[in-house]
Amino acid sequence: MESKTGAGMKIRAIRESKNMDVETLAERALLTVEQIETIEGGNTLPSLAPLIKIARALGVRLGTFLDDVESLGAVVCRAAERKGGYDFSNDNASQVDLMRYFPLSNAKENRHIEPFVIDIKPSETHEYVTQNHEGEEFIYVLEGEVEIDYGKHKYLLGTGDSIHYDCIVKHHVHAAGDKAAKILAVVYVPF
After folding, report:
1. Rounded to whole angstroms, how far apart are CA atoms 145 and 183?
2. Same domain for 177 and 92
3. What is the pLDDT of residue 70?
4. What is the CA radius of gyration of the chain?
5. The domain containing residue 38 runs over which residues?
6. Do 117 and 88 lie in a common domain?
7. Number of domains in the chain
8. Which of 91, 80, 184, 86 is nearest to 132 (CA)?
9. Distance from C-alpha of 134 to C-alpha of 131, rounded to nearest angstrom
10. Cα angle at 48 between 189 and 105, to 5 degrees?
11. What's the rounded Cα separation, in Å, for the pair 121 and 144?
């Protein structure tokens, strides 16, 4: 498994390079000081929504927090070379390991989309916190079934199904029922 501290350390380094204190970042990202400190401390990675808000507040791409090596040319991600992934929470501490994200182009410089393969474990509690952020998401179900809470609607998707939606509407993606799922997700966040 990838270290959870890398993203937090990058966030802190970028914030400090911009001479920004934690309070200012929290205010600009519409998060609490405690959330920023927890993320920077490397204790957990939040869901994508807070990371997107932090990226916007710092004026960087979302992928900046997960990037390894930057490349101007084409980037190939070989399945055998893919790293262990990142566990993100969904703002429910008991569900921190339900989604494991495998970035597919974290070496590509100046990208505007963030593609991931995401392994989704089923939840025992079925309590989900919907979130919103700028941008769009496209999801294609590779294995299993997923449920997407989107505004007042619920969408059940099976293998081969896809959905594309605006992220400004509160949403949450999770495994449907008690079986794991795998999706391809592409996130676009305007910069």
Report:
1. 9
2. yes
3. 53
4. 16
5. 5-65
6. yes
7. 2
8. 91
9. 11
10. 65
11. 10
DSSP state letter for 71: B
Q: Among 65, 88, 109, identify where a domain stops.
A: 65
Which are the contacts of 119, defined by CB distance < 8 A and separation ≥ 6? 85, 99, 100, 102, 180, 181, 182
Q: Please state whether beta strands 136-143 and 181-188 pair in parallel, antiparallel, or not at all (unpaired).
A: antiparallel
Q: What is Dmax (Cα atoms) for the chain?
A: 47
CB 101 within 8 A of CB 118: yes
Highest-pLDDT range among 12-21, 103-112, 140-149: 140-149
**Amino acid letter for position 67:** D
Residue 73 within a domain = no
> What gap in Å lies between CA 98 and CA 79, rounded to an integer?
21
Q: Enumerate residues 6+ apart whose C-beta is below 8 A from 72.
A: 109, 110
72: in domain: no
Angle, helices 48-58/5-17, rounded to nearest 10 degrees: 20
Do 85 and 153 lie in one domain? The reply is yes
pLDDT tens digits, residue range 90-133? 554 444 457 888 888 877 777 788 899 999 999 887 778 888 88
- 61 three-class SS: coil
What are the beta bridge partners of residue 146? 157, 175
CB 145 within 8 A of CB 156: yes
- Token duo for residue 164: 């594309």
User: What are the beta bridge partners of residue 173?
Assistant: 148
Give residue 24's Cα distance to chain centre.
Answer: 22
